[in-house]
Design brief:
Helices cover 33% and strands 0% of the residues. With 96 residues, the protein is an all-alpha fold. It has a domain of 41 residues. Helix 1 crosses helix 2.
Length: 96
């Protein structure tokens, strides 16, 4: 890999051609559209399956929401700042 950005992009989608082009400034969607079927299948092998969870177990929290009229769920930075962080709030719910 020619640079750190390209290497980090490759960890998201295992296509060298895609990583090189996006690292050089091309729009990711445009490059994705140009991948061959074989390149796309190879790239997807490195992508997490939809619904797979990370290494953290779900966490329960208790928050007093009496009098509140809105709630915002926020994901803070992880160990690499704001790179590639996300959270899935798939089963978020309020219980009594």
């Amino acid at each position: 890999m020619s640079n750190d950005l390209e290497a980090r992009l490759y960890t998201c989608l295992a296509s060298r051609r895609w990583a090189q082009a996006v690292a050089s400034g091309e729009p990711a969607d445009d490059v994705m559209d140009r991948l061959t079927d074989d390149e796309w299948l190879e790239a997807m092998k490195a992508h997490p399956r939809v619904g797979d969870r990370g290494g953290d177990a779900p966490k329960s929290i208790s928050v007093d929401v009496a009098g509140a009229d809105a709630m915002t769920l926020v994901v803070d930075y992880a160990d690499r700042g704001d790179e590639l962080d996300h959270a899935d709030w798939l089963d978020a719910r309020l219980t009594k």
